[in-house]
Amino acid sequence: MSSKAKNADAKVQVLKGQDAEDAVFDYLIKMNRPFGAVDVAANLKGAVPKTAAQKILVSLAEKGKITQKLYGKTTFFVATQANLEDVPAEKLAALEAEHKEAEEANKVLQAEVRAATAELAKIKSTPTDTELASQLEDAAATVKKTITRLEPLRSGAPPISPEELAQLDAEWTKYRNDWVRRRKIFNTFWALVTDALPPQESSALAEDLGIEFDTAEHISVEKGPLCAPPGVLGKRRR
């Protein structure tokens, strides 16, 4: 336990005798709701320990000052309602007016909270300066790319018809499928031929035979939009 907590505990004055009884009784009258001994001791901040609070509550109940109720295995104590003073009509009216005023103030605060929440959500959804700069760069790059694609049309070049595009796609697919099939056959054959050769000798044999393998450019094309699946292929023209 920290030194601050120890100092706080040391400041609590433990009540005894009539002072303890008065403190427990006054608390129940003030709150006017059921409490157990543990709750009373805790709410009095340890001024009346739990054991003492239990004895005082039982004693007050026996004297008829408070009412003792048993719910299952739990005992509660509450101020005897018949002993409470009636609240004057003027005080009730004042309390009702205060309650209504508090409700109106609460409505105003709730409206302010809703407005502040909406404003906060709007601010959070607004791009930052860094995000705006990035978006502007992307937009400028898109505009530049679009203008570049429009240049042939502006210079008078005839546009390619949908039929011509379809024919080009069909030819591309046909020739690429042939290339993929032949590359697979070659790779299978080459793996059988060079299976027993060290990598250095295998490379030397390929050089002697004039075999050219895929370069970085070929691999880049394979991973690019030209070699995308048929369902995605058309997207590269949009």
TrEMBL record:
Domain Homologous-pairing protein 2 winged helix: 19-79
A Pfam entry, by short name: WHD_TBPIP
Gene Ontology cellular component list: condensed nuclear chromosome; DNA recombinase auxiliary factor complex
Recorded coiled-coil stretches: 92-126
Entries under Gene3D superfamilies matching the protein: Winged helix-like DNA-binding domain superfamily/Winged helix DNA-binding domain
Domain of life: Eukaryota
GO MF term (any one): recombinase activator activity
GO terms classed as biological process: homologous chromosome pairing at meiosis; meiotic joint molecule formation; meiotic strand invasion involved in reciprocal meiotic recombination
Keyword Coiled coil: yes
Keyword tags: Coiled coil, DNA recombination, Meiosis, Nucleus
Subcellular locations according to the entry: Nucleus
Main location: nucleus
Family in the record: Belongs to the HOP2 family.
Name of the protein in question: Homologous-pairing protein 2 winged helix domain-containing protein
Protein species of origin: Antrodiella citrinella
